[in-house]
Each structure stands twice: as C-alpha cells, then as structure tokens.
Amino acid sequence: MPLDQYVYFALSSERTSAQEMTALLGIEPDETTVRGSRRTEPAIPVCHSWKVVCREPGLRVDDQVAHVLDRLRPHTDRIAKLARQLNQEPEPGSAARLQIVRYFRDAEGKPGRIRRTPRRVPISSAGIWIGTCWTSLP
After folding, report:
1. What is the DSSP annotation of 51-104?
2. Contact status, residue 48 vs residue 16, Cβ threshold 8 Å
3. Rounded to 5, what percent of the chain is helix, strand, coil?
4. What InterPro entries would the database entry show (predicted)?
5. Which of 17, 43, 44, 127 is the most exposed place for a label (fewest CB within 10 A)?
C-alpha cells in the first residue's frame, strides 16, 4: 500500500507571531502560518505557527523524527523557554507539538474519503493516520 508521511515540530500561538518566534529562537522555520490570513472573522487559521518539517520521501518515520529533532537539539533551551512563555498565554491555541502525519493510499495511489470514528480518530478507506505528541513544560 503506497504511503506518504511527514513529521514536524510546531509552536503555535494566537498572540505571538511566527516572526516573533523566529526572533526569539534564532532559527529559521521551514513553514509558518499567520493567524487570520485566510479569513479574519472567525480567524482562519486560528493560530500563528512556526514549524520545522521533514518531508523527505523514502525515510522511515523514526528517521524523519530524528531529522527534525537533530535540527532542534542545539536550540533546546530557547525552544523550552518559548514553549513555557506560550504556555502562559491565556488563549487556548498556544502549544508545542511533534506531529507525525501518514497518508495511506489505495492501490491506484489515490487518497480515500475521510470519515471519523466515534473516538475522533482520523481514518479513511485509503487510511489516513495522524499522531501528535503534545509537550507540557512546567
């Protein structure tokens, strides 16, 4: 069964912009989003986000995770400090997360239609799975 996957680490906030996060961290992100850049009322996306991503095809998921973590490791103290700062924001959208996204495709390589189970686990007839590791710092 054909499979596409990628891994990313993201910091998100309703208040702190990705540009501010970049300045605080001293690391250029691979991807960013700007709160309200697609629609302002209600804001879509709901949060600013700063991401380091590995989309290299052919790598095992653990190698993609290692690639992202290797890029972040020299900056752990600044990332932890910013994650604690974002955790203090009163808005609910602030988070630090490591996310693994896998798309299982059908025999022709097409994604299936998404349906949700009662437990809210994303699946499809072609099999889409999303896993997230949330961090919580004291």
Report:
1. EEEE--TT--HHHHHHHHHHHHGGGHHHHHHHHHHHHTSSSTT-EEEEEEEEEE
2. yes
3. 25, 35, 40
4. DUF4279
5. 44
CB-based contact 51:29 (threshold 8 Å):
yes
CB 89 within 8 A of CB 126: no
Q: What is the pLDDT along the chain (138 residues), one digit of tens a residue?
A: 567 889 999 999 999 999 999 999 999 999 999 987 888 888 888 889 999 999 998 899 999 999 999 999 999 999 999 999 999 998 887 889 999 988 776 666 665 554 444 444 444 444 444 444 444 443
Interacting residues of 39 by C-beta distance below 8 A, sequence separation 6+: none
Q: Cis before residue 138, ω within 30 degrees of 0? A: no
Beta partners for residue 8, in sequence order = 53, 99
Instruction: Give the H/E segment covering residue 22.
Output: helix 18-25
Closest of 113, 119, 130, 126 to residue 3, by C-alpha: 126
Q: How many residues does the chain have?
A: 138
